[in-house]
Amino acid sequence: MIESHLLKIGGMLSTELKTHVMSTVKVSSDTARKRIQREEKNNPNVCKLLGLSFRNGSVFYYHKNHFGSTLYWRALYKAFIDSKSAYSYAVAALLARDKIMPSEIFPIHCGIPARMAKNLSYERVLTDLKAVNAIREYFIPKVGDCISLMQQDEYLKFEGEKIKACLLAEEVLISSLGSWLKKLNIASFKKVAFNRSEKSQLVNGFYWDISAPSYLTPLISIDDKGQKPGFVVCDVMLNVKVDDIAISPFLNKVRKSQFSKKQGRCIYIFVAEEYTEGAFDLAKKAGVIPATTRNLFGRDVEEALKSVISVFSHLASFIDRPEQINDLFKRLNKIEGAVGNLRGTLFEFIVAESLRAIYPRVELGIKLKSTINDKKYDADIMITKPDETLIIECKSGHAGAVLAHEQVVHWLQEQVPNMYKTLAQSDNQQERKYSFELWSTKELRVESIQLIQRVSSDLKKYSVSFKTCNDVRQEINKSNQKGLLDLLDQHYLKHPLNKL
Asked: What is the rounded distance in angstroms from the CA atom of residue 338 to the CA atom of residue 6?
């Protein structure tokens, strides 16, 4: 009976299996528990997941024939969700994002504290889930390190471009929300932390997409040291209708953080495109502001953020339709700082597409991972020739602006040497040439030009050079693609700010 039931459903928690035995053969709880233990001991087909316990000491039982199957994973993930343990929130966060998320946002969106007494940390949960093969880690070249729920290999169809485009849209939204919180004086103007790029600010033991001290009167408290600010924290999720499971990691953060008295009162905000009725009600009952992109910024911006995902997932198909990209930028211009990241990504695309007309192997947005120190380096564009590798660093902005000298120094002294070491080690070809170029629609300072020239003259293992406005336009023009040239002129070289 126990074996046949597990064969039918794939697997279940011991508490549920005990209930099934009790209702089927009409025995007591203690008798049912002993029957399950005997079956596990005597029947090799009845297996127990080792190395991980669920809430109240429950364990996961499964049929041997189902291990690693779709039915097995479905049953195991259901067990995680039903258990309401720390592991359940990590699994829920991954399910909400189509079973995969970049590692850099896992500490924010897994719903588990980074540091909190008597609670598992997200690092411990990650280690435990990997130990039982419930999750695995991937390196996706255009995205970087990612964490995924385990599943059969034939179902592994992760779209790097789509993941990257969704992250880009969320970054636009996060930047806009930060400006909105500052303007309304909800957040302390100079202390807003954007924690995706750098985990710089813990609030009540958790990381959030946005966090900042707040001096709003209802949030201020008084202690022995004087006035103490509260905090405003916010997470965002796009490209999904947020349901009970998707909202649960955020609500766990809210519940847990309310027990902490170190950082005062908080305003909790969650922003999504839309919610199910159940998720919306759960958020309101928890005292959370369940905002949507439409009620914050209006229908135009809501549609524009959706377009960011669709357009930047398939940018190549829009080369001959630059008016759609122009319209997207026009709509996003309604909110401060929204188009900055998009303009950088678009410039990288324009350069890469123009070079594809010349070179057979051009890769865009590559994450290089060093086997020496395990660090990651961003290669905006990588061109692989038979005897040479060319890495292009793209810096966008309206023509007439000047690129900060510090950025040039960082590129020359930090990025280039480390990327060279990473590439040279992986290629293992002594005669191979390596070139690094800086392409910018901004002008370079005299000191920046002199530094590049001086460094270039001293180098032997690789070369460095640069191209600015006119040089960049000439290179794009070689592709004979009018659409690319129009995009370059419209958003960089002939930008309205050039006339000021």
From this structure: 51
Distance CA 83, CA 419 (A): 45
Give the Cα separation of 378 and 352 in Å (integer): 15
Sorted by sequence, the CB contacts under 8 Å of residue 144 that are 6+ apart come out as 102, 103, 104, 367, 376
Predicted local confidence at residue 320, as pLDDT = 67
Q: In CATH, what class is 162-302?
A: alpha beta
CA distances from 468 to 290, 336, 414 (A): 45, 27, 21
DSSP 154: G
Assign 155 a pLDDT band (cuts: 50, 70, 90): very low
3-state secondary structure of 433: strand
* Helices 70-83 and 86-96, axial angle in degrees (round to 10): 120
Domains 2-82 and 339-499 share a fold: no
Q: Which of 60-64, 225-229, 376-380 has the highest mean pLDDT?
A: 60-64
User: Which residue type is seen at 251?
Assistant: L
> Which residues lie closer than 8 Å to 455 by C-beta, 6 or more apart?
412, 464
User: What is the residue extent of each domain of the chain?
Assistant: 2-82, 162-302, 339-499
Tokens of 154: 């034939």
What are the structure tokens assigned to 453, written together?
């020239």
Look at domain 2-82 and name its CATH class.
Answer: mainly alpha
Task: For the full predicted model, state whether its pTM sits above 0.70.
Answer: yes
| 3-class secondary-structure state, position 48 | strand
DSSP 69: S
How many angstroms separate the CA atoms of 60 and 58, rounded?
7
SS3 helix, strand, coil % of the chain, rounded to 5?
A: 50, 20, 30
Number of Cβ within 10 Å of residue 201's Cβ equals: 18
Give the CATH class of 339-499: alpha beta
Q: Which long-range contacts (CB under 8 A, 24 or more apart) does 77-84 make?
A: 77/149, 79/11, 79/12, 79/13, 79/54, 80/54, 80/134, 81/245, 82/13, 82/16, 83/13, 83/54, 83/55, 83/58, 84/55
For residue 109, the one-letter residue type is H
Q: What would the pLDDT profile of 335-363 be if each residue is shown by its tens digit?
A: 766 677 788 889 999 999 999 989 989 99
Residues 347 and 467: beta-carbon distance below 8 Å = no
Q: What percent of the chain has pLDDT over 70?
A: 94
Check if the beta carbon of residue 63 is closer than 8 Å to that of residue 47: yes
